[in-house]
Hints:
The chain is α+β, with helices and mostly antiparallel strands. It is built from 9 helices and 5 strands, in the order H-H-H-H-H-H-E-H-E-H-E-E-E-H.
Amino acid sequence: MNVGSPSDRLDEELARLRSNASREKMERAWRVLQAINDSNVPFNSHSAQYHGTASLGYYNLLDQILDCCSFRDIVAVSQLSSSLRVLARLCLNRQLISILKRYAPDAGALFQVMKQTGGVVSGSTALAFVDRGDWTSQDLDLYVPAGRPRDEFLMHLAGEGYDVSKVVEIKPANPAWYPYGQLGASVTRITKLLKQSKEDPSITTSIDLIESKSETSAIFPIIYFHATHVMN
């Protein structure tokens, strides 16, 4: 296959994907990448000859293709090389930030708080992220290590317009209102936060901030859930 100018072909496919990232266009883009590989064009970040527009276009195209892939396919691609592993991780991070925007306009900052504190997303939002179905989660479950991380999240979410609606101290003999398993052994407290939409007061966004008993692991409570499919 004659791929012509690598930069031109990459720019052409990028334009097509930006206009409408359909399955057909994604598959055609894959074929272009395969043709470039078959032509032995040295596209990589260490290439002196093509470092610049063409090389960036190559990875930009890969990035947009990954955006059209399932979670399983992205993970599979990440196993092919160290550079693709980085690209896949960036893609998944970007997709998670996109989901977080439903709950926080400054989702990038919320993601950074998660990275800095070791906080994780679980529950229906995590399932929606992996499943990629046509449904959306109704609330956001944020798990955080014990201690200061909870305060950092509360400070950030207050800036996003959230108010504390309820705080439940979890005791071993009183798992309280949270309906998942024996959380008394793994959770210190649960803080429910609500934000009312300014455009439509009937719409309320909900976040549950779940503080682990562990100071080093936010996911510690998940092993105490009532079913293995929830743990997984």
